[in-house]
Amino acid sequence: MKSVMSNKWVISLYVLPSLLLILLLIYIPIVLTGYYGLMDWNGIGKMKFIGLENYIELAKDTKFWQSAWHSLLLGLFSTLSLVGYLILSLILASKIKGANFLRKIYLIPMLLSSVAIGQLWAKIFDPTNGMLNRILVLIGVDNPPLWLADSNIVLYALFFPIVWQYAGFYIIIFYAALKNVPEELIEAAKIDGATSIQIAYKIKVPLIAGVIKVMVILAIVGSLKYFDLIFVLTGGGPNGASEVMASYMYTEAFSKYNFGYGSAIGFGLLVICIVATWVIQKLLNTKDVDY
User: Fold this and answer.
1) Which residues, in sequence order, are CB contacts of 235 under 8 Å at separation 6+?
2) Alpha-carbon span 124 to 249, nearest angstrom
3) Which of the listed residues 29, 33, 82, 171 has the most CB atoms within 10 Å of its CB?
4) Are 248 and 267 in contact (CB under 8 A)?
5) Domains of the chain and CATH, by start
6) pTM of the predicted protein model
7) What is the pLDDT of residues 87-111, one digit of tens each?
8) For residues 211 and 207, what is the distance between their CA atoms, to the nearest angstrom?
């Protein structure tokens, strides 16, 4: 009995530092964000308690809901892009020639910072000297789009660098999951006359359903709180056409020095992410398959 109790104390001591870090870096900031949302504060002077005014204003703020819609659209695009990532992973896992080289190529964007990726794609999207518009002119397009300056297409243009940025992450996760599918099942399917497409659709994909569910959650929640690349490329412009919740929060807190309202936006973003995660888990109520 003594040894069991002592083991519990030892385990608790090992776990305590991690729990303290989680408390200090996650839960306390969440509580403080909700608290600051109750204040009228410029980030420097004295805070003034105003109750739920910031949250009531947030519920009526059309700019916030427009930015939330943009974030949801990015989440939808990111989820659809998972299909492409999965197909590429299936191809890489099928022992094609050069698979190792291709895996390394897909990981390159993960080695670059968001600022570097933003600068790279800003040059590509440049309306005058950008590579993309030069190609369009060469193939006969007279008036190529102003990708990042056109409010009608800027959000769709931003989707491409975001997909490119995270391709390596999702592909490597899917690839690792596919490599864990038992080879005996695949060989048995081949003996029964199954084609490569049938093996992928009826064996491999169902066996990694749990991983796909996690990737969908990561894609949607990650899109809801996405900030850095959009801030570097457009800053939320033009005229708020690419504004997302995180960039709107930044603008209110650090550009307008309205930290109370910015904190309310941040807390609203947290609530939306929690609700989105719960909804996705209910919609994708899959169970992991034991091999």
Assistant:
1) 247
2) 28
3) 171
4) no
5) 62-286 (1.10.3720.10)
6) 0.86
7) 999 888 877 777 777 777 888 888 8
8) 9
Inter-residue contact 274 to 187 (CB < 8 Å): no
Q: Which helix (H) or strand (E) holds 243?
A: none
Q: Contact 286/213 with Cβ under 8 angstroms?
A: yes
DSSP bridge pairs for 40: 48
Q: What is the dihedral of CA 237, 238, 239, 240, to 10 degrees?
A: -30
CA angle 210, 212, 216 (to 5 degrees): 120
Q: How far apart are CA 274 and CA 270, in angstroms?
A: 6
Cβ neighbour number for residue 180 with a 10 Å cutoff: 10
The partner residues of 48 in beta bridges, in order of sequence, read 40
Tell me the per-residue pLDDT of 17-54, one tens digit each, with 9 for 90 and over. Answer: 889 999 999 999 999 999 999 999 988 888 999 999 99
The model's pLDDT over 180-239, given as tens digits with 9 standing for 90+, comes to 988 888 888 888 888 888 888 888 999 999 899 999 999 999 998 889 899 999 988 888
